[in-house]
Write a structure and sequence with these properties.
The chain is mainly alpha-helical and about 80 residues long. The protein has one domain. It is built from three helices and no strands. The longest helix is centred in the middle third of the chain and has 33 residues. The protein is rod-shaped, with a radius of gyration of 23 Å. The protein starts with a helix and ends with a helix. The model has no long low-confidence stretch (mean pLDDT about 85).
Length: about 80
């Protein structure tokens, strides 16, 4: 929202340097790219986790739950 307000402010000040608009967009692109990178990492992690369990098991036998439990309580 703040970025949208800033962009609209540029419309109100047509004499403003266009470089400021580019910097604003570059900052937003960097944030989006960082989120995409985090989402890709999460996708890989979820895929690996999913590979630990096949259908047809009880919750007590679930590889996903075992992996989550192991991650939450690492061995010392």
């Amino acid at each position: 929202m703040a970025e949208i307000r800033q962009m609209l402010d540029f419309l109100a000040h047509p004499e403003a340097d266009c470089g400021d608009i580019n910097r604003l967009l570059d900052e937003q692109l960097a944030r989006v790219r960082a989120r995409l990178k985090a989402m890709h990492a999460m996708e890989k992690q979820l895929s690996r986790l999913r590979a630990h369990c096949e259908a047809g098991h009880t919750a007590a036998e679930c590889g996903i739950l075992h992996e989550l439990t192991a991650a939450a309580h690492p061995r010392k």
